Amino acid sequence: MDAQMLIDEGVSILKEKIDDVAIIACSGGIDSTVAAVMANNAVGEMLHCVYVDTGFMRKGETEEVREMLTELGLNLKVVDASDRFFKHLEGVTEPEAKRKVIGEQFIRVFEEEQAACGAKYLVQGTIAPDWIESGGGERDVIKSHHNVGGLPDDVDLTIVEPLRDFYKDEVRNMAELMEIPSSNRQPFPGPGLAVRVLGDLTRERTEACREACAIVEEEFETAAAAGEMEIPWQYFAALLPVSSVGVHGDARVYGETIVVRAVRSIDGMSARYSEIPHSILQKISTRITNTLKGHVNRVVYDITHKPPGTIEWE
User: pLDDT at position 132, please?
Assistant: First the structure.
């Protein structure tokens, strides 16, 4: 089935299922943006788009997403819920527990927005890998996606998922046909940096990971633009709760570890690690340790495929 037929099918599903006010969590990622544009085409002014700043977004992301979604003609509201998320995630370190907390707080935010706009439906950009990896029936849980395995049981909204049976490559093709700017935007997990900061989710550790991610993205994109490498399918930094000794000047100090991850993939179901030139990894290591001096003193590169690993670390 070609991209236009997939779009038409999704719009038809939305028209059939939604007969009242709907709300959608729109992160600016390709899945939620495609779902939002399709829903907007299907039900128009009945759709309310909400972007939630959880405090775990990438550097400058909220401003970029606000501009993009507004230009797409979506009825958008930006909610700063960072204090709420940090409060509920305090002391939560187990990955699945993080996802459960994030999923519940997402829904609680939308319940509040639902009350404000009178929404009866929740549109989600759930795609096939989300519910496959979240388990159920005879499927093992690989990781709960916040829009699937992280949802609380008492959701007072009817959920509509127009992309549920589609894979990432299909959604990318749809986005390109719909001329959505995020069609080439690399995937970003729903829980954001919360699953790239392993261990305690403090504001300080999150900010360190945010800065490291920004450095990785900038260096890879600059090198790719110069023809020094191919841009990976997904690339980022994660902060590990691994303390090791380092040297700053004449002082012996301890700092945490940043791991750089870059992979090649088509649909996210499997992936191969990207072979990055050492000169580029060296630049990244130097920038990260200089920028985060006193917090990070070691940078490593992940050379694990999926499987046996996953793309994200949590």
Answer: 78
